[in-house]
């Protein structure tokens, strides 16, 4: 008989399709796991609504549950319950180690350009805060582009949402 | 018929069509930064359309894809503002600035909805849109004194008013500092929308039921 803990462990093995160093559990997108009579219901929140990896993640979760011998039901929750504050401390460290600056904590107000332009963002390569915003947008919806003026390395910043 | 579905579809149509228009800059924007920005914004808008269509589709017993791609042109409810195709940068930034400002007002109202699903989705969309607004305002500030930009704003202003229901229009006028005038309302598909739909649905029509 499959347990919720076993499901969480299995889900922790699924890499994010676009940033494979971090797992779906690290990313904090799995909101709930409920096990009942051999079926497993997973509630899952997208990071960004336009994330093209959504279906890949959903299929990967369903496949993991089937491997455990249970019938999956993956429900995508379209509400505001995920934010970058849900990324686990381990997840943030994995991001940093692979060259992505983790998101800044979410503040009460909306982000302002002046904040994004400040040097509060640390280079994941040399730890300098002498970095500047290159582009609010990046290769995926969840990332911005920054440049480190000390080690002259461009890097990707996980957007705070 | 669900009461909320027509309104959800109307907003989804705006986001889908504008997302398509934004994506037309992919590869040919004036700078690499803007190429990336408009492609990413397009992806977000189409993601919002998908989520809104999904909510409506659950009420109507259909699917998001069927709502997005299988309706007749006359069934689309998009605002004339998003249907226009000009491929001119001043015009694109003027539309971006006006639309994002209008969308902020629309989302603020939806976030207060008694319908928890609508309010929750609006809150999520709004967080992503904060970055679109930063981008739009940065460009609007940069082009503020450019005659071509001012002309584009004046030309698009009646269309921008048509994005919002009448009770939200005064707020938009105040935010963008323009005088409220006769709005261009949602009124059936323009020729530009017909051409867009022809292109957007060609694969789906040529291979019905294809899986990807």
Keywords for this entry:
heterodimer, A: alpha/beta, GMP Synthetase, Chain A, domain 3, 4-stranded mixed beta sheet, 7 strands, elongated, B: 212 residues, Ferritin, 10 helices
CATH class of chain B: Mainly Alpha
CATH class of the largest domain in chain A: Alpha Beta
Q: Number of DSSP helices of chain B? A: 10
Helix content of chain B: 55-70%
CATH H-level superfamily of chain B? Ferritin, core subunit, four-helix bundle
CATH fold-level label of chain B: Ferritin
State the helical fraction of chain A.
10-25%
Instruction: Let me know the CATH homologous superfamily of the largest domain in chain A.
Output: Fe-S cluster assembly (FSCA)
Secondary structure class of chain B reads mainly alpha
Find the biggest chain interface.
A-B, 27 and 32 residues
The overall number of domains of chain A is 2
CATH architecture identity of the largest domain in chain A: 2-Layer Sandwich
Compute the gyration radius of chain A: what is it? 17 Å
Elements of chain A, N to C (H/E): HHEEHEHEHEEE
Beta-strand percent range of chain B: under 5%
Biggest sheet layout of chain A: 4 strands, mixed
Contiguous low-pLDDT stretches of chain B (5 residues minimum) are none
The first-to-last residue Cα distance of chain A is: 38 Å
Which series of helices and strands of chain B comes N to C? Answer: HHHHHHHHHH
Largest sheet of chain B: none
């Amino acid at each position: 008989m499959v347990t919720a803990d076993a499901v969480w462990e299995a889900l922790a093995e699924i890499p994010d399709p676009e940033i494979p160093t971090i797992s779906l559990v690290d990313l904090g997108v799995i909101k709930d796991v409920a096990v009942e009579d051999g079926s497993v219901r997973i509630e899952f929140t997208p990071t960004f609504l336009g994330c093209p990896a959504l279906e890949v993640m959903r299929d990967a979760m369903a496949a993991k549950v089937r491997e455990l011998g249970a019938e999956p039901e993956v429900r995508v929750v379209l509400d505001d319950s995920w934010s970058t504050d849900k990324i686990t401390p381990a997840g943030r460290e994995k991001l940093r180690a692979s060259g992505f600056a983790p998101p800044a904590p979410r503040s009460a107000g909306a982000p302002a350009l002046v904040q994004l332009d400040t040097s509060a963002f640390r280079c994941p390569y040399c730890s300098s805060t002498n970095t500047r915003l290159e582009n609010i947008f990046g290769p995926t919806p969840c990332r911005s582009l920054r440049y480190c003026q000390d080690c002259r390395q461009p890097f990707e910043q996980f957007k705070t949402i | 018929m669900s009461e909320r579905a027509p309104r959800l579809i109307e907003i989804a149509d705006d986001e889908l069509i504008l997302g398509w228009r934004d994506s037309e800059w992919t590869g040919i924007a004036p700078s690499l930064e803007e190429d990336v920005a408009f492609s990413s914004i397009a992806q977000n808008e189409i993601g919002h359309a998908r989520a809104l269509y999904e909510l409506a589709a659950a009420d109507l017993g259909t699917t998001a894809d069927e709502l997005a791609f299988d309706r007749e042109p006359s069934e689309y409810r998009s605002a004339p503002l998003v249907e226009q195709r000009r491929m001119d940068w001043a015009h694109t930034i003027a539309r971006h600035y006006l639309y994002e400002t209008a969308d902020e007002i629309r989302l603020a109202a939806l976030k207060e909805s008694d319908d928890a699903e609508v309010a929750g989705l609006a809150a999520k969309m709004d967080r992503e849109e904060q970055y679109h607004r930063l981008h739009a305002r940065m460009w609007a500030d940069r082009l503020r004194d450019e005659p071509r930009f001012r002309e584009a704003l004046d030309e698009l202003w009646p269309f921008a008013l048509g994005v919002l229901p009448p009770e939200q229009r005064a707020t938009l006028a105040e935010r963008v500092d323009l005088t409220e005038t006769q709005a261009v309302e949602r009124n059936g598909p323009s020729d530009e929308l017909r051409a867009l739909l022809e292109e957007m649905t060609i694969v789906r029509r040529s291979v019905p039921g294809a899986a990807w």
